[in-house]
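Hi again,

Forgot to attach this to my earlier email, sorry! This is the prediction with iron/sulfur cluster bound. I've pasted everything inline since the attachment limit keeps bouncing my files.
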Amino acid sequence: MPTFVYMTRCDGCGHCVDICPSDIMHIDKVTRRAYNIEPNMCWECYSCVKACPHQAIDVRGYADFAPLGHSVRVRRDEEKGVIAWRIKFRNGKTDMDLLAPITTKPWGKHIPQLKDVSGPTQEMRDSQLLFNEPKYIRLDDGGIHTLESNGLKMKEGVYY
Amino acid sequence: MAYKTVVEDDIDILVCGAGLGGTGAAWEARYWGQDKKIVIAEKANIDRSGAVAQGLYAINCYMGTRFGENNPEDHVRYARIDLMGMVREDLLFDMARHVDSAVHQFEEWGLPLMRNPKTGAYQREGRWQIMIHGESYKPIVAEAAKKSADKVFNRVCVTHLLMDEAKPNRVAGAVGFNVRTGDYHVFKSKSVVVAAGGASNIYKPRSVGEGAGRVWYAPWSSGSAYGLLIGAGAKMTQMENRIVLARFKDGYGPVGAYFLHLKTYTQNCLGEEYESKWWPGLQEIVGKEYLDPEVSHATHRPIPTCLRNHALMSEVNAGRGPIHMVTMEAFQDPHLEEIGWHNFLGMTVGQAVLWAATDVDPKNENPELTTSEPYVMGSHATGCGAWCSGPEDISPPEYFWGYNRMTTVEGLFGAGDAVGGTPHAFSSGSFTEGRLAAKAACQYIDDGKAEGIRVSQQQLDDRKKEIYKPLDHYKVYRNEITAGSVNPNYINPRQGLDRLQKLMDEYAGGAGVSYMTNDKLLHIGLKKLKLLEEDLEKLGAEDIHELMRAWELKHRHLTSEAVVQHTLFRKETRWPGYYYRGDALKLDDENWHVLTVSRRDPKTGEYTMEKAPCYHIVEENEQAEAAEA
Ligand SMILES: Cc1cc2nc3c(=O)[nH]c(=O)nc-3n(C[C@H](O)[C@H](O)[C@H](O)COP(=O)(O)OP(=O)(O)OC[C@H]3O[C@@H](n4cnc5c(N)ncnc54)[C@H](O)[C@@H]3O)c2cc1C
Ligand code: SF4
Ligand code: SF4
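Structure tokens for the complex follow:
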């Protein structure tokens, strides 16, 4: 489902250009508005659609197998932490609204700076532990799993 | 070409590609290397790059040890049977014992994980999968990576690794170019974590024309993880284990949540169950050890993914297609219906668009399934990738050379799709592997192993020339013709990609030949790949964007060659349903219960193949499996 841009809505801000993982949203030199330069490398991931502040980007099903006349629209609200979808079937009979959370916490505040947390001891360095383990594995005092702790031993027999 | 050269020097840990593996590496590196310089080089924008760009609706690898659900060894048993016996059990166990900590972190960071209201545990989709509202999965892990890295270079396509000139077989950084400005980027680094993802589009896709981008794995997954590693002379393993997926037709919508949570099932055009019909014949090919429906029934041991593909394909070939997913029952429940739609909106929007466009409402109509073209990747139900060292406390000597997830090139580490023999890692496991690689990379530097690295100006100049060659080539020959894209002196990257896909499809077991190949076909395939390699020296790129496509193609080409070499070497059909060797149709445990390992000589391009032992570290435990299931 390649993207396209409505001429009257796009102001050439470039958010879509900044985000597209396939590097295919570009600003046209003449119209100074965005367009998809390579529809056959578009995954319809909707990253650009979600990023456009003016809802200028839309998607239509691939010409190879999708008839015209449908739409799947999206609004992603970072502040509220939700995403809203609207799906319209081409026959006009089905029209669905769906809403989902995108995060449970405000952006930018809950992920620690690891350079500020107290650093690992030599003992931790020598162990198999990762940051905040074993606490984060079991949330109890069971340590890291090892073959011994789990009652395992290497099975005899190597196959060549 | 007058592009600027931008040099980033004194890097300790360079992360190439920041999808799930790379973000995990950057994040963890800061903890073990608080004073170290950590730099990310990413082809796209890390906020929405990689296979998880659109989000995911499930985390497919979670033990739930905390809730008494599974232990790491259970996961090893599962992955082992799914991959017909062939996995790196040390790496799998290691990933599985750490993966829960990554998931618990994700929840703390704000990723909405669904919970089972009755048990309080995470909402299970299946034994290993938990359900999430994952639309913003990637922005969340990207935030973590950005907090840890000193610098993030977005839009830098890494083309080559730099090699140390003071000590052979040691990495010294990487080079690439900015796909917007064209600038030449040099990263001099003591260690490198390659997490540049698996490969779509090396086989001719089912979709063509405008629809060619509608592949299951992202079209920007260019196999760079393999291309970079192979190019540097790292050993690779299991490259013949490329994956074919059963998916909703045309949209490639994943079926996991449908099978596992919505309890939908498949049937043929006559409305019949068809799978079990194929098991007796298939058992003759793979043996009872790998396919015993009675045991599977009694213990809930899954039937391997590839064998289920085999049943689907065989039924279609017998003239009883299409295969339908029976959704009409589950979708009568409005809650399940909503989950069915959310599943796509959060991870494969294209499937929702397709159903809306074709008026397929799964409540009233059972949608069609199909099998995809093959993909090369190391983190889904398949384990292509680099031959890496395991952890000290688990690995047998053949699997251990000092630093966890280090490839056979010193200082060069892998994560996610880049690491071979670790299927079923998925998003959470890839992130975890990045963390493990980062800790080991810090240790490698602290042990003084990266001292005295030398990179000459000559190496940098040579690479620069090589990188921009397609632009120069285009410029020189463009005006020899009036207009258009047909030129006797060059092909453009799209034309090269079409050629690669056609030959891989026809000679290396693509969808077009029902995944069938043999010794003769593979030899012809290799010959044609060599010719293509020569022509890749004459690629013409019109602009910087096309230059990126040119390098993606070169990485895909290296990946393809490894796939063909491995498939040729393993003279058996280990994974019917992923591919078939017509001249060696049977699984042959006597000769081939081994891992295949290759190395491409970076100077000559010659391949050496070897067998490596397949150690079974975790014992069989059918009894316990039955009790837990
Ligand atoms: C449709 C779909 C559904 C899936 N469903 C699930 C699921 O439900 N649950 C689950 O857990 N997993 C799921 N997966 C699998 C999961 O997404 C992967 O296992 C995981 O993302 C692999 O991580 P990675 O780091 O190896 O690769 P990626 O996440 O793909 O990251 C690779 C990164 O490298 C960058 N890169 C590539 N080439 C270069 C280069 N030359 N230079 C610099 N950077 C480069 C890319 O831009 C990208 O950012 C799904 C995948 C897909 C496609
Ligand atoms: S849908 Fe995705 S791939 Fe297509 S143009 Fe938008 S961001 Fe790029
Ligand atoms: S984000 Fe929207 S408005 Fe901005 S350039 Fe892209 S299409 Fe135009």
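DSSP finds 18 helices and 19 strands in chain B. Chain B touches chain A through 98 residues (CB under 8 Å).

That should be everything now.

G.
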